[in-house]
Amino acid sequence: MSMRTRLGFSVCAIEQSLYQSFGLGVFRLLGEDNLVYEHLLRHKVDEILLISPDIRTNEFDKGYDFSRLINRYIGIPACIGGSLTESALKELLEWGCVERVMFSGSIQCKNQSKINIVTQLYGRQAVVGCLALAVEENRVWILEENHRRYRHLSRSDIDRAFDLCDEVIFQDLGNYGKRNGFHYDEIVELTPYPNRTIINGGLLRTDLKRAMRDGLAAVYLDNLVMHSES
Amino acid sequence: MINILNLGIGNFNSVNNWVKQSGKPTKLISDPMSYKSGLIIIPGVCSSATLIDRINSKNFNQLIGDVIGSGEIVLGICAGYQILGRHTEEGGGRECLGYLPFDVMRVKDNKNSDSGCTGWKEVCIKLESENELVKRFQRNNFLRGDAYFNHEFGALVETDAITTTDMYDKQEKYCSYFVRDNIIGFQFHPEKSSNFGLKLLGMFV
After folding, report:
1. How far apart are CA A190 and CA A164, in angstroms?
2. Cβ contacts (< 8 Å) between A99 and chain B: which residues?
3. ipTM for the complex?
4. Do B11 and A123 touch (CB under 8 A)?
5. Distance (Å, whole) CA B79 – CA B166
């Protein structure tokens, strides 16, 4: 069935507040989580991605308390991800308040037990992958699982992500938080499944129009409608 | 009272928060013995194989049958809808409850490849005027809006079977909703369908 391109929003969730992320380790406070949810719902966002960032890579020592979602009505799909241990993931799934789970590092590592847990209990439609990418001299690089270095993105990285996940976010990390434009030509041409592809990072209105024309699954607008860093 | 099954999987709390918007009292039930009266909702966001296993192991299959027999409404959402059919091929295959005339199969696209369905699509719901729900609630029998879908398996309805339903909307032969007497099934997620979901809440709850 043909679906329209969804307009989503990704936010970093830390303690009780939501932040906008600018690359790795730089955050701007959006506000208390409940107020931000209301704001996004008022603007008819199609979905929301809540990322609790890896606490090893930033100044915060606490992730987000996802149990805050248990009593909160959010009338759009909520996807969560980031730094979940296997036990935390199992606990979270039992709370019955999320629809999808996003994996970034896990889709690169050999141990896929966390992805398997979600697939077995929730089905593969609940699994979203994220490829954190950078484009340099027309070549596309992927940030390694340990966040220490980039390596060339290979076809097998992409195939593996689509095998494991229902949809895959192609994140332009080099433009994340900026309004420089998404590396659309370099990145989108790599996907074998446009209708299962989500793009995020540095988007301009021209990128949004192209994504809708090309039938991408979703775009995460982020800096296009909120702050951006020069 | 609106009862929502809590089988330890799926988005039962999201469904609970959605139903609370109606102002009606809700109750999460994880044991059939705690059911007293009222409508039952079977939430989704899970594998239909895992869901039917848990329903059977906790004896909710008996309760669902009793509630349907009593004339109370049973509403299944996504996998909760799928397990009201005859059989699911998910998870290696399982027999289901058999209240609705369909089998649950992996969704295929036009090239016969596996194809998930994630996103928003317009759904048009029509209730026939003689439907029991219309008589009971005297509510609107027509509703149109954008609904959120997220599934890889779907309720595959035989063409003849569709004509026996009170209302239907089909994607190829996959049935996005199904109402028969006091049994309602939504393949989409009304609890995550924003304004349309809230309007549906008014129609059925």
Report:
1. 17
2. 11, 14, 45, 150, 189, 192
3. 0.89
4. no
5. 21
